[in-house]
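Pasting as-is:
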Amino acid sequence: MIELRRKAAVTVTPGTGELAAAVIIRRGELGLTQDALAAKAGVSVRTIRSLEAGRTWPQARSLAAIARVLGLDVSVSEPAKAAS
């Protein structure tokens, strides 16, 4: 479960949907539409929609801008590697 607070620290792993969930939850808490978040972060609405759908991982600059608007401190962890 992801718990978000103002300037919450969130650790996400690429490919798991954790980032999408964190953005959707926090955007809802702040009462922002996808359009409003995109405008405040200086990214396209397509970027927000793709991120929330889990289709793409944003570029570092875009991720930083989105996190800033949402008041999130995002860190990225590497996916666990299977033992061989």
